[in-house]
Specification:
This protein is α+β, with helices and mostly antiparallel strands. The chain contains nine helices and ten strands. The longest helix is centred in the first third of the chain and has 14 residues. The chain is elongated.
């Protein structure tokens, strides 16, 4: 479907339910829209490849509340109902509710929050069975978490000026506090862990990643540049700690000490 004039209004059952803003670059059928979440049909649980328990769903909601809907959901109308979309007087009219192809849990949170609009990518045309293929493809391979890079990013966040406290990192990533703290120490096992599907969280804690089993590491390993290392050493000096070495500093202790010192 090609919409001749954009932006334009989006209607369902002759009621204004959203807005079509633009066609996505390099695509003839994907449109950037916002839409009333109440007119969307969530993927039924038996058909959703991404399973999320209640605890994970609550953490996902907390992350969305803090970061907003930076990740749009994907919606579309199945091939069998393709005739149920028309253009009248330049506006798009839907005669059936679009299905959620990706982001059912985000939709559920939006409904709980009584949001009136939700950002979405609209597949304006779908081939026969493509709705099921999209659901499978979007959830089939989310990659894996590279723990080394994750360690570096978490350490960087904690030592930067105006850094987020651990409590906010827990909220933003959807991980529990123990997981965050364990990411601030070098694990005995560097094996990457799988992601968590729709959850923008972190891998589960490895048994050997607990603080008592953590390796002692130097600031050269912790930080990627000398300036950051120097700032941490100044913070530790304020706490009465001697110059840090492999022998006397564990990564998690150094980062948390820096937070306690309030170093900018």
């Amino acid at each position: 479907m090609i919409i001749p004039s954009l932006p334009t209004d989006l209607y369902y059952d002759n009621k204004l339910v959203g807005r079509v803003y633009a066609r996505q670059a390099a695509s003839s059928r994907l449109y950037i829209i916002d839409i009333d979440p109440r007119v969307l049909t969530p993927c039924p649980t038996p058909n959703n490849p991404n399973v999320m328990n209640e605890d994970s769903f609550q953490r996902l909601g907390q992350s969305i509340d803090k970061l907003e809907f930076g990740q749009s959901i994907a919606v579309g109308i199945p091939w069998s109902q393709k005739e149920q979309v028309t253009i009248r007087n330049g506006a798009v009219h839907l005669l059936v509710k679009p299905d959620v192809l990706d982001g059912t849990h985000r939709l559920e949170h939006a409904l709980l929050q009584n949001l009136e609009r939700l950002p979405a990518i609209w597949y304006s045309t779908l081939r026969r069975g493509e709705d099921k293929l999209i659901r499978a493809a979007f959830n089939a391979d989310r990659g894996h978490i590279d723990r080394t890079i994750l360690h570096q990013q978490m350490a960087s966040i904690l030592v930067e000026q105006g850094a987020f406290p651990i409590e906010d990192m827990v909220l933003l990533t959807g991980a529990d506090r123990m997981t965050i703290e364990n990411l601030l120490v070098e694990s005995d096992s560097p094996t990457p862990l799988p992601g968590a599907g729709d959850l923008p969280g972190l891998p589960p804690m490895l048994p050997d990643a607990r603080p008592e089993n953590a390796k002692r590491v130097s600031l050269e390993v912790i930080f990627e540049d000398a300036a950051t290392k120097k700032r941490v050493e100044r913070a530790l000096h304020k706490l009465g700690k001697p110059r840090t070495t492999d022998k006397d500093l564990m990564l998690g202790q150094g980062i948390l000490a820096l937070l306690d010192a309030g170093e900018d």
